[in-house]
Design brief:
Layout (H helix, E strand, L loop, with lengths): L1 E6 L6 H18 L3 E11 L2 E10 L4 E8 L2 H18 L1 H10 L6 E9 L15 E12 L1 H11 L3 E6 L5 E6 L5 E4 L6
Parallel strand pairs: 1-2, 6-7
Antiparallel strand pairs: 2-3, 3-4, 5-6, 7-8, 8-9
Helix pairs in contact: 1-2
Organism: Rhodosalinus sediminis
Function: Required for dimerization of active 70S ribosomes into 100S ribosomes in stationary phase; 100S ribosomes are translationally inactive and sometimes present during exponential growth.
Subunit structure: Interacts with 100S ribosomes. Associates exclusively with 100S ribosomes, which are dimers of 70S ribosomes.
Length: 189
């Protein structure tokens, strides 16, 4: 497995890197089959250290965790515990999906845009929004169950995916009441 351990304005020494590899490696070996790579980023926010970890699994799913603490090792340990809890929670589902899916998740390229907010209360000159940035993103081909699992693992508010069963673009999202919503356009049925 590949590790990318870095710090934003923080020097990440050999001892911390070794600790990250040992602890995260043990957690991943216990709960995830064949993780491909892990990215761990340390930063400082006022008096706290922040640790953000992203792990890509061989099934194509991604698990993310974030934690903060007053010590850098404590921040990583809390982040690792969150990652371990997520993977433990989904271990059975990950195994089930992995048996059904011998190949990694197929992805399709797409453009993602960041739009400027409407400023003041005056009427806009045009209905076209102002594009601030354009990036490339990927839309995975998943089952609905895998999409919900990916939404939970990533902690994301919304996930756009291509429904493998019907080949249409679908959306799963976290509702305000805590439930998960699923949008499937009638065209894709």
């Amino acid at each position: 497995m590949r590790y990318q351990i870095s710090g934003k304005h923080i020097d990440v020494g050999d001892a911390l890197s070794t600790h990250v590899k040992d602890e995260l490696g043990a957690a991943l070996e216990k709960y995830a089959n064949r993780p491909t790579d892990a990215q761990v980023i340390f930063s400082r926010n006022a008096h706290e250290y922040v640790c953000e970890a992203t792990v890509h699994l061989s099934t194509g799913l991604t698990a993310q965790a974030r934690a903060a603490a007053t010590g850098i090792y404590a921040a990583f340990d809390a982040c690792c515990a969150k990652m371990e809890k997520q993977l433990r929670r989904y271990k059975r589902r990950l195994k089930d999906h992995h048996r059904e899916r011998p190949q990694p998740v197929e992805v399709t390229g797409a453009s993602s845009y960041i739009l400027a907010p409407e400023g003041d209360d005056s009427e806009p000159d045009t209905l076209q929004p102002v594009i601030v940035a354009e990036t490339q993103t990927q839309i995975p081909a998943l089952s609905v169950g895998e999409a919900v699992m990916q939404l939970e693992l990533a902690g994301a508010p919304v996930l756009v995916f291509r429904n493998e069963a019907r080949q249409g673009v679908n959306v799963v999202y976290r509702r305000e009441d805590g439930n998960i919503g699923w949008i499937e356009p009638e065209d894709s049925a």
